[in-house]
Design a protein that fits this description.
Layout: E1 18-22, E2 26-31, H1 49-56, E3 61-62, E4 71-77, H2 80-91, E5 96-104, E6 111-115, E7 118-120, E8 128-130, E9 139-151, E10 162-172, H3 179-187, E11 213-221, E12 228-232
Parallel strand pairs: 4-11
Antiparallel strand pairs: 1-2, 2-4, 3-4, 5-10, 5-11, 6-9, 7-8, 9-10, 11-12
């Protein structure tokens, strides 16, 4: 079996975690882009959502994760029983997650479904790959919100200062690692700023400050009250 070496060192994140809601059972937060969800094995990667929140809410645990570059909504369990109940909702796919993203280029269709199995590939770590044979089923819906042009700064190509972008709403039906990022690449329109899956390849996009992916909605049933919690968070880009 191939050994996996993670050499990634996260740069310091000075943005604060915004606590949107809390009770004795769970916490809802807005995660800043550029912050790990969970601390890495490397001591330099200690700072994370969990590391920060466990100082405030001892015993809290992550129910799900967002990629380092992704911002937006996360639900944190304050004890093991709540974690188990929420994890069950995620595994049974009764949780609705909606993301906002900016994709490179203009999509032809206004909406569609990306159905492409995803597999780990130790040789390409940390990249995932589309693999119909060995991959786990993965399915994402997309809906176009708007198509527009973004004027690039310091673009070396004088006659091509406008970057075509499409704002989309992404709804993953499954929850595979890097699912939305690799599915958008598969669509031919990577997420702007995505360093792993082609979102920094177009001229002028190399210095994009962040991954343009934000978890904007999270809907689940509160494990204790049994009421629907429907949270929305404004996209910062």
């Amino acid at each position: 079996m191939s050994m996996i070496y993670d050499t990634f060192i996260a740069p310091p994140c000075h943005d604060k975690i915004e606590i949107l809601y809390q009770d004795e059972h769970l916490v809802l937060i807005n995660k800043p882009a550029g912050l790990l969800s969970l601390s890495g094995k490397n001591p330099q990667n200690l700072d994370s959502v969990h590391h920060r929140l466990v100082q405030i809410f001892p015993g809290c645990t992550l129910v799900h994760r967002l990629d380092f570059g992704t911002s937006g909504l996360m639900v944190i369990a304050r004890n093991k029983a709540i974690n188990a109940a929420l994890c069950q909702q995620f595994s049974q796919r009764t949780v609705t997650k909606v993301y906002s993203a900016l994709l490179c280029g203009h999509l032809d269709d206004n909406e569609g479904i990306i159905d492409a199995a995803i597999a780990k590939d130790p040789a390409l770590f940390p990249l995932m790959s589309i693999c119909p044979i060995n991959g786990k089923p993965a399915r994402s819906h997309y809906q176009v919100i708007e198509r527009f042009y973004h004027e690039l700064e310091d673009n070396k190509l004088e006659n091509n200062r406008l970057l075509p972008l499409t704002r989309v709403q992404l709804t993953p039906e499954t929850g595979r690692t890097h699912q939305l990022r690799i599915h958008c690449q598969q669509l031919g329109h990577p997420i702007w700023g995505c360093d792993l899956y082609g979102g920094r390849l177009l001229p002028g996009t190399e210095q994009t400050p962040r991954l343009m992916l934000h978890a904007s909605e999270l809907h689940f049933i509160h494990p204790i009250s049994k009421e629907w919690v429907k949270t929305r968070n404004t996209c910062p880009f």
